[in-house]
């Protein structure tokens, strides 16, 4: 079974037509990969479907806008993958 | 349908909140300046207006699901296909269903039929924004009344 990062990287590569081998755990989705907010909706949709979760994009955006979090916490792919793992675990715990 | 005001929906036929589906109807006007150019001697409803009519139908569904607390704004059009022509005077039936509701966005799938025959379909993405001002919200509420939005469906 592939890791969460591998699944996310594959989704990004396929959704945004970015070469898979340029996507690393340290890549920042916005700053490094140049993914804009509209393309990120497609990625969020694919992640929501693949993992059976709902990425809380509005909450994250609000936290960044309020200075309570940095974009790196949510959009560097190793961190995004960790957030996905947390959401999957939380869903499993509440099921 | 008032093309010059971009009012493309005449009436809501059915809004099923539990099934996350909506059906609306509209009659394409028999005359419009649009048809003078599109096309002389062979007037056709432009494909972009068919897509817009599917977007407006989806918008009313999302407004219902969101209880008028957010405004859906069209963000992306995917897999739009115009499968047959729509002519002046045609009565179109548009149905839309929720495909996915994410955080701050939603996707719908919509279809247009004339006389039961599929004429267009699309998958649409919307961002869901707070109403930017009271004017816009008031306008949407007035439009809702005009097209028979069933408020009892969202406030049973």
UniProtKB/TrEMBL annotation, chain A:
Entry keyword set? Phosphopantetheine, Phosphoprotein
Gene3D superfamilies registered for this protein in UniProt: ACP-like
Cite the Pfam families for this sequence: PP-binding (PF00550)
Q: In terms of domain of life, where is this protein from?
A: Bacteria
**Domain named Carrier: which ranges?**
2-88
Q: Name the InterPro entries for this protein.
A: ACP-like_sf, PP-bd_ACP, Ppantetheine_attach_site
Do you know which NCBIfam families this protein is assigned to? Answer: PRK06508.1
Please identify the protein, giving its name as recorded.
Acyl carrier protein
């Amino acid at each position: 079974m592939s890791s969460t990062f591998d699944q996310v990287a594959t989704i990004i590569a396929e959704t945004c037509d970015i070469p898979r081998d340029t996507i690393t755990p340290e890549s920042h989705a916005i700053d490094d990969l140049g993914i804009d907010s509209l393309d990120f909706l497609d990625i969020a949709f694919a992640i929501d479907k693949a993992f059976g979760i709902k990425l809380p994009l509005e909450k994250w955006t609000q936290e960044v806008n309020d200075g309570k979090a940095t974009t790196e916490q949510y959009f560097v792919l190793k961190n995004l993958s960790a957030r996905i793992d947390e959401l999957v675990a939380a869903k499993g715990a509440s099921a | 349908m008032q093309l010059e005001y971009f009012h493309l929906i005449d009436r809501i036929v059915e809004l099923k909140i539990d099934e996350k589906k909506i059906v609306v109807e509209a009659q394409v006007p028999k005359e419009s300046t649009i048809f003078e150019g599109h096309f002389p001697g062979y007037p056709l409803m432009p494909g972009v207006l068919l897509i817009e009519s599917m977007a407006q139908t989806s918008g009313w569904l999302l407004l219902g699901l969101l209880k008028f607390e957010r405004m859906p704004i069209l963000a992306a059009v995917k897999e739009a296909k115009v499968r047959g022509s729509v002519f002046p005077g045609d009565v179109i039936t548009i149905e839309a269903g929720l495909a996915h509701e994410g955080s701050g966005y939603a996707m719908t799938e919509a279809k247009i039929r004339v006389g039961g025959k599929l004429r267009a379909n699309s998958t649409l993405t919307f961002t869901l924004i707070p109403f930017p001002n009271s004017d816009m919200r008031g306008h949407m509420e007035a439009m809702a009344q005009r097209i028979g939005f069933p408020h009892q469906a969202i406030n049973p």
